[in-house]
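Write out the 3D structure for:
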Amino acid sequence: MKVEHVAMYVNDLEKTRDFFVNYFNAVANEGYHNKTTDFQSYFLSFEDGARIEIMYHPDMQDMEKSIRRTGLIHIAISVGSKEKVNELTERFRNDGYEVLSGPRNTGDGYYESCIVDFENNQIEITI
């Protein structure tokens, strides 16, 4: 078995698409728009086959996203090396994103950093 994809509602569909394309080399599909319900989405595909579906609907709830809450808390993206974790973390920092932690070795064996994207979603960058 494998996780086929993870989905997340976002306020700015195009900006989120561009974020993952720009920083993580995702490839976006042409998008989907149901004109009856006004639901819109993109599938973002990554080099290894992983996919994220980003979605927008005008009636969605936009609740506060605290870092420590129940439910899904972050997306971890492997970039392949310690050097790439360091470089990407510095790029995020230079672009004005909040770096929550790292780059660092964690007690459970990861080398990672965590940033907060423009919609307050936590993204973990790891080897």
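The chain has a mean pLDDT of 95.
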